[in-house]
Amino acid sequence: MRRLLVVALLLFTGCAGLKTGGQTLLEDRIINTDTVWQGDYLIDGKVRVVGGATLTIKPGTRLFFVRRDRDRDGLGDAAIEVEHASLLALGTVRQPIEFRSAENDPRPGDWLEIKVDFARKLQLSHCLIRDSAHGLHAHFSKGSLEDSVLRNNIDGTRFGQGRYVVRRCLVVGNRGKGLNFRNSEMEIRDNILRGNRAGLFIFETDRPLTVVGNNFVANRHHVRLGDFFRGDIKLGRNWFGTRDRQKIDTLLYDRGEDATIGSLWAEPADSWLPGTGPCPAALHLEPDAELFGDGFFDAGAVSDGQTIYLPGWDGSAYAFDSRGQRVWKQALGEVADAGPALDGGRLYLQTWGREVLALDRSNGRPLWRFRYPESAHDDHRQGGLVRVGKQLLVPAWNGRLYALDAGSGKLLWKQDCGAPLRAAPAVARGRIFQPSGSGRLSILSLDGQLLTTLDLGAPLLSTPLVTAGGVILVTRGGDVLALDDDGRQLWRRDLAETCYYGAPVLSDGLLYLATAAGRLHCLTADRGEPLWSVDLAGPSYATPLIAGGRIFVGDNRGVMQVFNALNGDPLARADFTNAIQSTPLLIDGRLVFGARDSRIHFLRLRED
Fold this sequence. Notes:
Elements: H1 2-13, E1 18-20, E2 23-31, E3 35-37, E4 40-49, E5 54-57, E6 62-65, E7 79-83, E8 86-90, E9 97-101, E10 113-117, E11 121-125, E12 127-130, E13 136-139, E14 142-146, E15 149-151, E16 157-160, E17 163-167, E18 170-172, E19 177-182, E20 185-189, E21 192-194, E22 198-204, E23 209-212, E24 215-217, E25 221-225, E26 233-238, H2 245-250, E27 252-253, E28 264-268, E29 283-292, E30 302-303, E31 307-311, E32 316-321, E33 326-331, E34 341-342, E35 346-350, E36 355-360, E37 366-371, E38 386-388, E39 391-395, E40 400-405, E41 411-416, E42 426-428, E43 431-435, E44 440-445, E45 450-455, E46 465-467, E47 470-474, E48 479-483, E49 489-494, E50 505-507, E51 510-514, E52 519-524, E53 530-535, E54 545-547, E55 550-554, E56 559-564, E57 570-575, E58 585-587, E59 590-594, E60 599-607
Parallel strand pairs: 2-4, 3-5, 4-6, 4-7, 5-8, 6-9, 7-10, 8-11, 9-12, 10-13, 11-14, 12-15, 13-16, 14-17, 15-18, 16-19, 17-20, 18-21, 19-22, 20-23, 21-24, 22-25, 25-27, 26-28
Antiparallel strand pairs: 1-2, 29-60, 30-31, 31-32, 32-33, 34-35, 35-36, 36-37, 38-39, 39-40, 40-41, 42-43, 43-44, 44-45, 46-47, 47-48, 48-49, 50-51, 51-52, 52-53, 54-55, 55-56, 56-57, 58-59, 59-60
């Protein structure tokens, strides 16, 4: 009855579909005239484009496919089918087109495919295709897929009997094959293929093939030949994640693994190839405002979304809005370089006077104070504060981790974690991970019981990074370690570079780390495989910020730089007169950070 009602409404109104919850509902239907889609669509069935019609999908359009398995083959049936017709899906950097599952728990195979046969025109750019069974599935056509992302599908593409170009795409996390084709003339250039079971699967081909300028990393097999393919293929110059030719051979599935199939000949690059994958919009950092103080600003700012808070070496705490207008200033009595914490009504700070303060967020008025004993380690950077439950966690120079009642400042418990504590703890899954300058990692319960300790052999000066499987830590000597929640090592990578206070950060399965040696590194979070590294203008003590596919990081030469998070390509920079050791904050289109020129800087982000 519901289906008949929908059809009747469509016939009566003549609209493209029934509006429901802000989305246009499209069930099984045929399109045989030129049609434009713009907005949000819910596809519950098969939409067929035929008879020479052109389906044009405008930038910013989102298509959500309902998971419905009518034929009980384990795959969703919803699809777009284009036969003897044209598909133009041309998004932009700022307004990509999305093809994705409508489910709350998306998984590969929720919907079937974008199937194209005998296309008159086939062009997709700046598209996201995810959660499907076959992704872009095209035969007997000529088409292009550019600047797009294929993610979380079973297969990202299935191409056959045609001519296809795949350029500057990110092909990531597909359960089966990232790019899959047979008997087609293919140009596969400047892509990133990462974390797929097979990055490139060549079922069979006797046509011209160009595979060049791509970065293959962390795939089970970077390139794999089909089970019945007997020919030999020479690949162009690509990066295969290593310079070791023997290891590369193990990542190419050919005659070495199956004597009945052909061979792959690789021309490996020496390192990661720049300019690959989709690129964010061009960016300019334009000075917008400055707030002057009387000392260094090394701590990272925190914000409640409207007001920004930051302490400084001048012994004051500042509150200001995103335009740089001061809301209040409160004297603390001593230097403060530790990251503050926020809750609904209070701002928490730690000073070099070994004092912890709670301030009223609205006016800076002190609400309570807590002081701890002095020690031989009372200098240099302090650990940031962490708010968890009713507790405020305070890492102290004297090696104690204090838990205070956040409302009153009353001491709840304390635990010796090895002096000095110069980094904030990480909290996850009912555990506290506290690093120490002594090289000790202490793992505690939330009530302060010591569960285990590990000696990692070198000072730990930065906050651990919480991941789904545990934590990642960095030693001053440049060892990057992943541990599970009980402290068992999962992997270890030696960067052989000095690392101080900058902590690793995580985005889209990758971790990023800026070092005191003046390099920015990108590694996979699950195995610690290096992807790329780039030179900074100088040594960095700062934790980067990841936002909008970009990395923002300052250094001790006073340069704020922006990089493409996918490939490390430089995007923008701004030069200042003194070191930038704070983590920047992005709010209302402005980048906000403190520096050692005694100023808080506001840079407006302008995209071309």
